[in-house]
């Protein structure tokens, strides 16, 4: 076993009970827990003796570089990400920055991303083919996001939208809905979930037309159905197709 | 608490260590473990005293009906799905069949689906916007699958392909690649993972051109990059976009 190791750990939506056993074992094995302060706070009570290293938001790359240098120095680092480390997480940037650093072993430990944990709250909106799209244009040109929304609507995918809004980005969800409405019915069933897996989880179903006027914050994940998605006893369900066979 | 309850439990890719604490707690709470025999076998050693109920493949709806009747009779049922219960799992069909059955509480417990667990094996192929598409035409017309593949390629999404092949369906992956090649570069980086999280996990990177000739079986998940996806130290990495900001 190589002792110079970084685990990229997906914590799932929040509470420790939503982590996998493998993720917990990675934290147990680590010398240092590293991440955005909120994520480190979620687990540090369980590992009171571990060293921690946090950097504020927007300093992700600095954190990656620190993790690589710390692992090179002989420590095992658990790099914490909310949800899954491989979905808008830090697995990609860290692997890119560690290119050619042969002495450090990097292991990605998957977790339950918000598309899955939010879907479970709403019912089963992603039962069939689906797309995951982030509405944040911090790292992606808005034209790329628009193009993908348009293609997703034309393919009649269900969608999970990450980063649908924030204090600064108040119009992105409305603009996204307008693009989707070019190809999707205004009555398409949608849903949102806020604070998934944390205190104060909240959710609601609504139509795509109504979603235009919904004010999403950065703790919200938005779900948009395909043309067969329907409400069943208050849940959002995309049929898988068994009803066509029987 | 309502005692008439069905947990729809996503087991993750296989080994118990890949389940969440919440999923384990649901199995612990259940009187009966119900599912496809392979899934029940994965966990029954840990719960030797639980009643089990299995039905073979293609009898999923019968299993759902049994679970609903068993819960109505006052037992708590854990309905096991591999990966996540809400991604090509049984959450949708069960919620549909339980429509109007007010006496039974249904709770979806999310798990790590193969898109996430397979991505972790390969590196970080789904770091940016992505689509999940099943190539099985058992429940979906092939024309719908073709249309979605075409839209996914036009939107330059990364893709995770479920059910890329089986003994009977040997040509689906090749046909899918041919559609993707209408809009994607033949050199697009792809990968496959077999037996994720189980004994004999295997994986490889290859180009979209090479993927045409790959023979996938039903234990394989296939990943297709977007136009920026690249190999870094043997891993498949889709950049998130930080490099455009720095």
Question: Would you kindly provide a brief summary of this structure?
Answer:
Two copies of one chain form a homodimer. The first copy, chain A, has 246 residues and is an alpha/beta fold.
Describe the structure.
The first copy, chain A, is an alpha/beta fold and 246 residues long. The first copy, chain A, contains 8 helices and 13 strands. Chain A has a 5-stranded parallel beta sheet with strand order 3-2-4-1-5, with helices on both faces. Chain A has a 5-stranded mixed beta sheet with strand order 7-8-11-9-10, sandwiched between helices. In chain A, strand 9 (189-194) and strand 10 (202-207) form a beta hairpin. Chain A is elongated. The model of chain A has no long low-confidence stretch (mean pLDDT 94). Chains A and B meet through helix 1, helix 4, helix 5, strand 6 and strand 7 of A and helix 1, helix 4, helix 5, strand 6 and strand 7 of B.
What would the principal axes of the Cα set say about the shape of chain A? elongated
Q: Strand order, biggest sheet of chain A?
A: 3-2-4-1-5
What's the alpha carbon Rg of chain A, rounded to whole Å?
Answer: 19 Å
Instruction: Calculate the mean pLDDT score of chain A and round it.
Output: 94
Estimated share of beta-strand residues of chain A:
15-25%
Which two chains touch over the largest interface? A-B, 78 and 78 residues
The count of DSSP E runs of length 2 or more, i.e. the number of strands of chain A, is 13
Portion of residues in helices of chain A?
25-40%
Q: Determine the oligomeric state from the structure.
A: homodimer
Structural class category of chain A: alpha/beta
Q: Termini distance of chain A?
A: 53 Å
Compressed to H and E, one letter per element, the order of chain A equals: EHEHEHEHEHEEHEHEEHEEE
**Total number of helical segments of chain A?**
8
Major β-sheet of chain A, in short?
Answer: 5 strands, parallel
Low-confidence residue ranges of chain A: none
